[in-house]
Amino acid sequence: SPLILFPCLLTTVLSFPRRSPPPDPHPPIAMAISPRLLLPLLLAAAAASAFAGANDLVGELQSLRSRSPAGVIHLTDTSVTRFLSSPAPRPYSVLVFFDATSLHSKTDLHLPQLRREFALLSASFHANNPDSSDLFFADIEFSESQHSFSQFGVNSLPHVRLIRPEHSRLADSEQMDQSHFSRLADSMVEFVEARTGLEVGPIVRPPLVSRNQMILLGLLFLISIPFGIKRIMEGDTLLHDRKLWMAGALFVYFFSVSGGMYGIIRHTPMFITDREDPNKLVFFYQGSGMQLGAEGFAVGFLYTLVGLMIAVVTHLLVKVESLQTQRFAMLAVMAIGWWAVRKVIYLDNWKTGYGIHTFWPSSWR
């Protein structure tokens, strides 16, 4: 019967001996790592990973530097965290200039000028050390990175900080002293070389006149030589004009007595903002420790006015035939001169406290 035959066949198949699989010609080899070797291997792997990460940061900074004007990298809160808050030690240092465009109008801070000198310092370092990746230059703007300002503890400007490789906290970075701003980029070099041990090299300042401009000026000079010789022979040049010499003499006199050269050397501002009222400008500063440009020009104007009146009296008034006109002019000159001298004495007394006293001859008492 088929029902009886099927169980018999099934039993026969199940009882048939199974063939074992062929042996693997390349059996896996099991390796046992000693616990003593495991820790050094892990440390080596961590060091290799950290070294690779540091190289990545250096590569990114070099790429940003190549795309930045004068090699000054612009940082934000995000990039500050990435490049300056990474685990110490880092294979590079960063010199950061803190800027605020909203304060560029305050002439007493000199922020635009210091920012240009900082860029000049950066360009000079990279020109003298083209392959160096030990020092990078960067700037941070207040309106974009207020969190970074608070992390560094910056509460006044101008402000420059050096973040060295061993600085793990931003607040531990070194601040550039205000004295290093006195000679601009030349004094900043001293700070960088003293703190980093790197040689910046000479400051490379751009020439006042480019090569093409020099060639153009030379051509114009050569062309003008024949015309100039002709005018000189005829006595018809500006150098023969007495009015020009008189105006030049007045300018030299005014420039001297107004302290113009002092203002240029000391970078004296014309005016400052009142500390109590930012909307108010101060043109006269009370105190002998500081002088504003407006003060010098005001006193220089009074000196020049008196000198001009004396010149008019001695050279022009004596040629007037009308005696009445002479007397009236002399009275006007004396009145204006007395007012000008009194103003100078008053301003000097108000600023320095120095006073002038009148002494009568003893025989008049």
How would you describe what is shown here?
The longest helix has 32 residues. Helix 4 packs across helix 6 and helix 10 runs antiparallel to helix 11. With 365 residues, this protein is α/β, with parallel strands linked by helices. It is built from eleven helices and seven strands. A five-stranded mixed sheet has the order 1-3-2-4-5, with helices on both faces. The chain has two domains: 145 residues, 3-Layer(aba) Sandwich (Glutaredoxin); 112 residues. Helices cover 52% and strands 8% of the residues. A hairpin with a 7-residue loop joins strand 6 and strand 7. It comes from Aegilops tauschii subsp. strangulata. Keywords: Endoplasmic reticulum, Membrane, Signal, Transmembrane, Transmembrane helix. It is found in: Endoplasmic reticulum membrane. Belongs to the OST3/OST6 family. Its main location: endoplasmic reticulum.
Proportion of beta-strand residues: 5-15%
What is the distance, rounded to the nearest whole angstrom, between the alpha carbons of the first and last residues?
169 Å
Task: Name the helicity range.
Answer: 40-55%
Please compute the radius of gyration using only Cα atoms. Answer: 41 Å
The number of distinct helices, counting runs of at least 4 residues, comes to: 11
Q: What are the secondary-structure elements, in order, as H or E?
A: HHEHEHEHEEHHHHEEHH
- Reading off the top of the CATH hierarchy, the class of the largest domain is best stated as Alpha Beta
CATH architecture of the largest domain: 3-Layer(aba) Sandwich
DSSP summary, beta strand count: 7
Q: How many domains make up the coordinates?
A: 2
Keywords: Endoplasmic reticulum, Membrane, Signal, Transmembrane, Transmembrane helix
Subcellular location: Endoplasmic reticulum membrane
Pfam family, one: OST3_OST6
Subunit structure: Component of the oligosaccharyltransferase (OST) complex.
